[in-house]
Amino acid sequence: MAKRKRSLDIAIISDVHLGTYGCRAKELLRYLKSIRPKTLVLNGDIIDIWQFSKRYFPNSHMQVIKHLFGMAADGVKIYYVTGNHDEMLRKFEGFTMGSIEIVNKVVLEMDGKKAWIFHGDVFDTTMKHSKWLAKLGAIGYDALILLNALVNFCSEKMGHGKVSFSKKIKNKVKSAVKFICDFEQTVANIAINNRYDYVVCGHIHHPEIKTIANSEGSVIYLNSGDWIENLSSLEYRHGRWTLYRFMDDPLLSGLQLIEEECLDTAELSLNLIREFQMVKA
Questions:
Q1: Which domain CATH number covers 204?
Q2: What is the mean pLDDT of residues 229-244?
Q3: Looking at the predicted structure, is the pLDDT value of residue 127 above 50?
Q4: Which of 165, 175, 229, 259 is deepest in the core (most CB within 10 A)?
């Protein structure tokens, strides 16, 4: 018997990075199969064109793309908002295929309020002035996630818990914390100035829902996080936003997934060795 899907008015996901070793495509596919949204917003960095390689695009990643097209065929309105890792698609803004539309930003109205939705890289100074550095950082981040998966696999075998290297770095490095705060305040200030009720971003891989105010007013700031570490999304239903976290969902994250992770980690370990051998060569 098929499981009943959760009906949503809007679902927003971002920073999936299909085509990279850190992508959690199997978990995302489980999530997408569990919901029935009227509107789905893919808020940037869904396919990682920066790091795309013919050597690595597993079937689980392709299954996500197939399922998205299936959702569109079933009548779900899908906005593909371009990000920095899929910026090549920006020249196709306005292109539509069935109920899928490529946009650089989108404003949605719900229950008499307006939500301004965009990826967020436009406010990243590294992206604006040192794109080569941003691309180098993306490669380093993917390698860190890959190494992290191997370490966590060994840690759990020894009876210890998981740890996130990148989260520890972000939380301890003052400049990283300041960047997140500055990013949030900047987008909030512009949203308040344009009288939006909500401003929704991705890009910084930091899921959040909070009210941000300045001398001119306030706005509800939302960030959908990512599907590499946080495995999070934003959901809107019955006039209320909520932050969904896959690992907190007992119906989707379970023993079978843990077993799959162990098998995936072994494969990732081999890929990590191959990557280092290529760099050395």
A1: 3.60.21.10
A2: 96
A3: no
A4: 229
